[in-house]
């Protein structure tokens, strides 16, 4: 895959050298709610994942890309998931590591690059995103990027003994 380059970041395919970053990110319990994870991953399992990360989106129905600074520092991950070429849609997921990299435009630029790729290259008609109702930063980000709130999934996520709502967003390429 070509590098998808923006003004401050670029997106690239995962590399074997991303193992340590992936290990730290996937085993961070503070993002498990977003990723749907409930148990840690071993380096062995993640190494196997990276060995298969080159597989085609049409085969595995997912595309995970590293979000990198122009200085080649990995800042986060962005995904297309539940890829459905027949109905021309996919979900978008993003995680930016550490608070130091958040609220600096990294997420917005990464999602914008992915939107352009999904609509222009993959010929998708729509993208969707699931955002926790209490995640004000992500709610604002998806609205700012032209996603429309189309639903609320009541009591969708159970975390720390509390049920939380999840907001469903869509962006339709007209």
Architecture overview:
With 174 residues, this protein is α+β, with helices and mostly antiparallel strands. It has a single domain, classed as Aminopeptidase. It is built from 6 helices and 8 strands, in the order ββααααβββαβαββ. The chain has helices at residues 19-26, 32-35, 43-52, 57-60, 106-121, 136-144; strands spanning 4-5, 9-13, 63-69, 74-84, 89-96, 126-132, 148-159, 162-172. An 8-stranded mixed beta sheet has the order 1-2-3-4-5-6-8-7. Helix 1 (19-26) crosses helix 3 (43-52). It is globular, with a radius of gyration of 16 Å. The two termini are 26 Å apart. The mean pLDDT is 90.
What does the average pLDDT come to?
A: 90
The first-level CATH class is given as: Alpha Beta
CATH third-tier fold name: Aminopeptidase
**What number of domains?**
1
Give the count of helical stretches. Answer: 6
> Roughly how much helix do the residues carry, as a percent range?
25-40%
CATH architecture assignment name: 3-Layer(aba) Sandwich
- Taking strands numbered 1, 2, ... along the chain, how are they ordered across the largest sheet? 1-2-3-4-5-6-8-7
Major sheet details: 8 strands, mixed
Quickly give the structural class.
alpha+beta
| Straight-line distance between termini | 26 Å
User: What is the tally of beta strands?
Assistant: 8
Order of helices and strands: EEHHHHEEEHEHEE
Strand content: 35-45%
CATH superfamily: Gcn5-related N-acetyltransferase (GNAT)
- Evaluate the radius of gyration: 16 Å
Q: What would you call the shape?
A: globular
Low-confidence stretches: none
């Amino acid at each position: 895959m070509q590098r998808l380059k923006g003004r401050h970041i670029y997106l690239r395919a995962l590399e074997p050298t991303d193992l340590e970053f992936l290990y730290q990110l996937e085993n961070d319990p503070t993002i498990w709610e977003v990723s749907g994870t409930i148990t840690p991953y071993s380096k062995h399992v993640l190494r196997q994942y990276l060995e298969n990360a080159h597989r085609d989106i049409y085969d595995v129905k997912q595309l995970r890309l590293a979000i990198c600074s122009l200085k080649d520092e990995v800042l986060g991950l962005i995904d297309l998931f539940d890829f459905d070429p027949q109905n021309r849609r996919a979900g978008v997921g993003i995680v930016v590591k550490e608070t130091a990299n958040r609220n600096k435009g990294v997420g917005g630029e990464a999602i914008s690059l992915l939107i352009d790729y999904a609509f222009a290259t993959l010929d998708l008609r729509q993208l969707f995103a699931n955002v926790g109702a209490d995640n004000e930063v992500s709610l604002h980000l998806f609205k700012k990027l032209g996603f429309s709130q189309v639903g609320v999934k009541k009591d969708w996520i159970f975390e720390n003994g509390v049920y939380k709502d999840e907001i469903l967003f869509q962006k339709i390429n007209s």
